[in-house]
Amino acid sequence: MKRSIYLSSTDIEEAKRIFDDAIKSRLERRNTEIIPSESAYGRVIAQPIYARRSVPFYPSAAMDGIAIASNKTKGANEHKPLLLNTDDYIEVDTGDPIVDPYDAVIMAEDCIHSDLGVSIIKPHVPWENVRPIGEDVTEGELLFAMEHVLRPMDISVLMAANQLSIEVYKQVSIAIIPTGSEIRSAYDNVEIGDIVESNSYLFKGLAMEAHALSSTYPIVKDDFDEIRQAVEDAVKKHDVVIVNAGSSAGRDDYTVHVISALGKVLIHGLSIKPGKPAILGMIGDVPVIGVPGFPVSAHIVFEEFVTPLLLKLNHYPLLIPERIQAYSTRRIVSSLKSKEYIRVKIGYINGRFVATPLARGAGMMMSVVKSEGYALIEKNREGVDFNEVMEVQLNKSIIRIKNTLLAVGSHDLIMDVISNQFERSSQPYHLSSVHVGSYAGLLALSKKESALAMTHLLESNGSYNTESIRKLFSTEKMALIKGVKRIQGLIVEKGNPLDIQTIEDLTRLRFVNRQRGAGTRVLLDHWLKQKDIDSEKIIGYDKELTTHLAVAAAVANNVADCGLGIQSAATIMGCDFIPLGLEDYDFVCYADFLDDPKMQLFLNCIRSEEFKDVCKSLGGYDTSASGEVFIYD
Questions:
Q1: Boundaries of CATH 3.40.190.10 in the chain?
Q2: Phi-psi region of 86 (alpha: psi -120 to 50; beta: other; left: phi over 0)
Q3: What is the pLDDT, as a whole number, of residue 28?
Q4: What's this model's pTM, rounded to 2 decimal places?
């Protein structure tokens, strides 16, 4: 099979127009079914529904009391209560029928009981406290118009109005075909070179959110005939087909050839990043979408094309993602050729939204998980400058973002501990952290890009953090919150086969470093200067990772022989640890922010026994001063 040569670059809005035109006849087809009303939650009505019975369908008591003919209550007043004979009334409960000769109900609280009977102190008019026939629903009344999505309260009305079965639109079915000779099931024993197939679980969940029924095919290797056979089978049985991976123009990318052989390719290539290699096609009247294999690309293409398609075919209203205007905390360089989707963390600081870009790799799905949305940078725009407003498409609600404490700075596992405590509290607040290093965290705080900074910067006098606070916030009243003392040291392979013991050993092995501005890197440079060691003699000094866990993982997987980090990260990754010294990992915020309820919850968390117990179990932490506050002005 020849390599595809017609990978194009179509504007996304133009691609949507072409795709919508192609599926127009399919959207006009009405596939319906009759189902029991009791199981119709969330389904879309295909015909108008009218009541087959009034609710209530007989006059009934609106409350507990006695039923009576209203003309027998004349003359009653507070000064001269009227005694009713037992033959004049009957006791009723709410919902009981009211029939001749009775036409009113006296509520139980207005009845004065005695041995002689019941006395009342006011007259009652006809049909007082009586629910008439059809008070709620009248037989023949329109209950729901077409295209209505049934809610729990709607089902209750259907059952009461004697509509026990209804006509609804059939749920759309979607076939998910994962492809790739290197792809393995998540349940297989995977080896180096294998790629775990996880996109189908993303697609299945997104399809469920669009109210579609999904079916995942077994993994198909990179073979034209096998992919064709799977697609042929899928288009016979499903309303929509997606083929995952193989959508580009590489040697083993067959999706476009299969669609072309069986139907028509509408679009091959979009001017978006990530997600360019997408394919939009039709086989008969079945839409077939080739979705790129990288997870982030797959997510964007599915949400832009497949989700709206499924909602339309299911007759559900389209979901309009919430968008906001946010100030960029970084300069973002963008391609002029494509519309870019930049994953961002969002904070609500001093009455405005700020957005910090995350990793941009198309294979980094965790960055989508951690993000609050995509910053949208349109085609033909070079990028976004620092503090420039940009449009952000949210994947979390605005209220959640406003209720989130955004912390920026140095990485430590205790941030996950505190985040879990936030979620377990009864308060509606959340913690979100971005790990950019200590100094970058303090800079972000100084620019009002975060509410809290995490820092462990070693100062010239041997203390931690205080000089940096005074330098960066010389005119501000600041609060330093003591976090933990933690052990920094060398993370080495289990068993320490290279007998690594001191900083001097770094010149004879493969090292992995932290990013510039990270407190751990500052500490390393301090020790190298003390020992008069030239960093250029350390292989891997310029290889930068952003978290302690990433450093430990590099050592555990033999990517590096050693890295500098914290004991808890080494323990989690099954590495050995050579302790070198204690340091202070602290938090900084503006002093007036201490009274904010999110910050109060943060302080309660790090002062709690639960926090201290978890730190003890992780190892390498001293929490004796956790939560102490010092004010600098």
A1: 449-632
A2: alpha
A3: 87
A4: 0.84
